[in-house]
Amino acid sequence: MRDSSDPAAAGRDIATIRALLAPANPVPDTAPTEVERQHGERVLRTLLATLDQPSGRAARGGLFAPRRTYPRPRALVTAAGLVLAIAALLVGGTVLRTGDSATAAPLLPAPLLTATAGDHAAAVRALTRAAELQRGLSPAGVGPVLYARSQTYGLDVTVAQHKSTTVARTTIIDFWQRPDGSKRIRKYLQNIDRAGGNVGGPAPMEDRINRMGQGEFPLGPPDHDPSKSPTDATQLRTLLSSRNAAAGHPGDLGIVLDVISLLSSGLTSPQQNAAIYDVLAQIPTVFDAGAIRDRAGRPGHAIGVVASDHTSLVVGTQYVIFSDTGAPLTIEMVDTPNAPPGLHLPPGPTIARYTQIITASRVHTVGDTH
Q1: Quick check: pTM over 0.85?
Q2: Mind telling me which residue stretches traverse the membrane in this protein (predicted)?
C-alpha cells in the first residue's frame, strides 16, 4: 500500500480498482487490462488484510489471501480512503445497463406505487392485452441454457435475544439453468445496511463470500421449476390451486404469491407469461395502476394485486410492471400504511422487496450472458 502522502499514487490505485471491479457492473464501459487486473488484485488483497487484521499480524488465508503484513498507520488512511472509494463504486455507482440503467437502491427507497385498490376492469384489459402480445412472441436468444439477470432489493430481519436488526440488501443475481434443471447462481451484493431503529440487535449476515459468490445447485422438483410451468391458464391455475390446498392454503392468496414468484424468476417463456397474466386477471383484488417507469427508467404499465389477508398487520400489495410487449420488467411489494412494527422503520408505505428483471434469454452455455 502506498503512503497517504502520495495522493497521485493513491489516485492511480483507485483507478486500477475501479477497472478491476468493472465486473460488478454487468455491462462495464471498458474491461481492465491484464496489468491493471494484477495490480488491482494486489491492492485489494492488502486492503482486505488491513481490514481483517487491524492488530498488525499477518492475516489468515481466505478468499483473498494477502502476500504481506500490514502497512504503517499513515498508509491505513489511504486504505480507508480506497475502501470508501470501493464502497461508492459498489453501492452508488454499480449500474445495470441494457439500454436502461438501475443503480443500487438507497437504504429505504420510495415505493413506485402505493395504491391498494383501483379499476379492476382496466387491469383485466391490460393483462389480457399483455397475454395476447406475449403469446405471439418467441423466447429471446438461442441455446439450451436459460439465463436471467435481475436486481433484487429486500428487507431482512435477524432476531436473537429478544432483539432484532433490520437490514436492506440490494443484490445483482445471474442465474443459469441447464436443460437437466441444474443451476448456477452468481450474486453481487451491491449494498447492505442496517435500516431499523433498533440497532442493538444481532449482527446481520454480511460476510465477504456473500458479497460476491456463486454456487451450483442440483435439479429441483419439476413442478416447482418456473421454466416447466404450464402455458395454459386453466392448467396453471389448477396446478397452483391443488398445491396450495394440499399445503393448507386454499383461496387466491397462495395463487397470487405463486404466480408472482414465477414471474420474478425471469425463467418463464413468453407463453408462460401469458398464462400467468390470464390467471392474474381472474383474481378479484387485481387493479390497474397505470403507465409508469420502473427503477431502470423503462416505460411500462403496472397492475396491482393485494397479497395479504386479514391476519396481516399491514396491507401487502404486489405490483407488476410489464413492457409494451408484455414482458415483465419489475415486480415490487409494498407494505401500507406502514412497515410491520417489528421492523422499527420510519412510518409510511415501505418497500418489502422488489425484483427488477434486466435480462432474460437463452444462451449457449453456463457463463454466457448473451
Answers
A1: no
A2: 75-96
Distance CA 276, CA 272 (A): 6
- List Cα–Cα distances, 144 to 141, 147, 361, in angstroms: 10, 10, 10
Pull the grid cell for residue 295: 427503477
User: CA triplet 9, 10, 15: central angle to 5 degrees?
Assistant: 95
* Rg, C-alpha atoms of the chain: 23
Closest of 180, 177, 316, 307 to residue 252, by C-alpha: 307
d(CA 50, CA 350) in angstroms, rounded, equals 37
Closest CA to 134 of 369, 355, 363, 360: 360
Domain ranges of the chain: 7-93, 120-156+220-363
pLDDT for 254-293, tens place per residue? 999 999 999 999 999 999 999 999 999 999 999 999 999 9
pLDDT tens column, 34-44: 565 556 556 55
Rounded Cα–Cα distance for residues 83 and 89 (Å)? 10
Q: Residues 6 or more apart from 326 whose CB is under 8 A from it?
A: 129, 130, 131, 132, 133, 134, 137, 270, 273, 274, 277
Q: Which of 21, 16, 168 lies closest to 90 in space, CA to CA?
A: 21
